[in-house]
User: What shape does this take?
Amino acid sequence: MRPFHHPHLHGLEVWQGIARHATLDQLRHDKPAYFAGLDEFLGQLHAGSARTAGGDLLGPAAGFERLLLAGGDAAEAASTLRWPNELAAPGPFALRAGAEAIWHEQGWRNPIAIDLGQTRLKILTPHANRAVERDEAHLPFGRTALPEAKGRARLREWLHSHLPAEFDGVLLALPNAISPTGVAESSTYPGLYGPVESIFAGLFADAPVIYGNDAILTARGYPPTNHEKTLLLTLGFGVGAALWY
Assistant: This one.
């Protein structure tokens, strides 16, 4: 297993971005307030004054020239935001263009992409897309909702039960911030944190695996056409971000 790296593509932690005296995460259950807050946050991000509750580094995004929207809430956001934007990939399978680019680079002939979303699992092959809803009774939300070992075991069982019989390469998209050394921060899945290789060891047999944050892997499919500093937002359960610069 190895982490995905691209010299001009970087992730941004914006889920805890502050707008309208709250974080974007706190606003997401009220769509009008959420989109208004996101619009405000984008203005601050462009100006270089945006902040997050965790003090995340956002400075590189200042002055972004192009905004792309992807994910299940992308179409609704695109028509609501005042900030100029382009609808890149609406719907649950926003990863496809990025997956296809990476599959091609690796020369895999029978690849899969696994997009572990916060509310559903998406499995992509060259010929099909499939989504499986998360069973909250089996995989409840929250890092401590189950003991670490039990949560990790259930997550692995769930993934394994939906893998195709044969594949020669795996792209694994995770809803976590991932350090350059391959350590995942928390997400809503119990047990899904720590060194990525130890979490998924042996799950994909001998197939090569490339893993990364879902927003970064999605953005891989939408490189700038004229070297513009490009911000891509993935809008679904929450908001993820990746920056081309």
Remarks:
- The longest helix spans residues 31-47.
